[in-house]
Specification:
Blueprint lengths: L1 E6 L4 E11 L2 E7 L5 H8 L18 E4 L2 E4 L12 E3 L12 H8 L9 H14 L5 H7 L11 H13 L2
Parallel strand pairs: 2-6
Antiparallel strand pairs: 1-2, 2-3, 4-5, 4-6
Helix pairs in contact: 2-5
Amino acid sequence: MRVYLETSGKGPTMSTEITVTVNGTAQTKAVEPRLLLVHFLRDVLDLTGTHVGCDTSQCGACTVHLNGEAVKSCTVFAVQADGAEVTTIEGLADGDTYSNVQQGFWDEHGLQCGFCTPGMIMTSEALLKQNPNPSEEEIRAGIAGNYCRCTGYQNIVNAIGAAAKAGK
């Protein structure tokens, strides 16, 4: 990690060079130490599938996997991800083949407006990694940190259940 002091007419700013492997590709960029991971993904790498919802870590729309764990990327600084592996919603599908969770959301109509969907899918992927055969109650508990204002959750729960069955 290298630290730079830049002067660009707006006054001095500090930037730090980080390398993060995102969806299997190493990305080396200079970032301000205060830049959140969600903004690094969206604004620096142009991976806009990760959504900014509430800016308070309550909604889960910004959920990604950091070294295999689901995290709300609005609570992580990009510099904290230096040397880490990040998977976003863009990194789940294998070409034209959806992951079991993505396919479950498609088949079971687990979305309406789609705003919460990337974070909900990333959380669901982590849930099924930890518990490949969850009950409905365990699914509901597993996605409790993600808000959906459109669906009423039942189709989301059905989608995760279908993904669990498909993964067997």
